[in-house]
Every structure is written in structure tokens, then in C-alpha cells.
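Suppose a colleague, Dr. K., hands you the sequence of a protein chain of 174 amino acids and asks what its three-dimensional shape might be. Before reaching for any lab equipment, you can write down a predicted structure in C-alpha cell form. Begin with the sequence itself:
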Amino acid sequence: MTEQPHTAGDADLGELFHAAFRGLRRTWAEQLAPWGLTPHQWRALATLERGGPPAERGGGPGGDGGAGGPCPTEAPPSGLRVKDLAERLRIAPRSATEVVDQLEAKGLLARTPDPADRRATLVAATEAGRALFDDVGSARRGKATEYFSRLPESDRAELARILAALAAPEGSAA
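The predicted structure, expressed as C-alpha cells, is then:
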């Protein structure tokens, strides 16, 4: 049996959204490979640099924050504790520790003592990490632009409006 293309009238929006997202997500791992980063490492670096995971900053499906403003809970310049990074990424602290170890081994972030609690450490992007963040972010914005370019400008604007409304906290005006 041949599957018929979806039309606006019979579309399962969740499935269509998931399929479109998979297409974009597939390109992200490929985009990160030249820099030796995994998607998990990118998310952690982006969180440290921008104060929240890309989706929480209003960056939309491109995940780079290019279309959105700053997160209302910006990370302090001194960094974040690993447990706070894990919470913002919505992953287990042990998983965040592994990602931090990987990024630290690459020289992209550093651990420093927490001045408020000498038993704790903070993690923050190094100069190399910040430079890489800028380079990768620029390339990802270009790829996202390319991905969405198959839509007419009016459809891209409407999609951005719809996604912003869906990404807004419930009860807030988008």
C-alpha cells in the first residue's frame, strides 16, 4: 500500500513536526563533526555561553539562539556548577560530568573553585571554547537558513511565529 502525502486537513501535527525535526537534527551531528563535537557537547557549551539550553533561549529549532533574545537567567560570568548545568540540560548529573570532562579535555572549558562554596567547582567556557562557540553558531545558523530556504519567506515567518507561540510558557502571550 502506497502512503499518501499528508495534507493540512488530515495531518498528525506531532508526527509531521517530529519528521521535520529529524531532518534538521540529522544535519546537526554532521555540522558538528568538523569541530570534533557531539550534539551533547554543543548543548553544554551553548548552555554555558548563553545561560540556558538553546530551545529555552528562544533560539527555535535551529538550536543556536540566533533568532531569540537572551535567556532571563543568564549564567554568571564565573560559570555554573555541574549539577546546575545538568539541571538546565535536563540530564543526569553523571552525564553532565562526562560531557564536562570531554570538553575540558579538549580545552573548551575549565573548572574553577566556587568562591561561594570552596567544596564546589564551577565550569565555564575557555577563550578557545568561546571562539569555537561563535564559529559553530555561525555555521549552524547558515545551515538552518539553508534548510528552511525551501519555504517561501512568508511561510518561514509564519513558522517562526507558530513555533514561538508553542515554545512560550503556558499562559504567556507569545
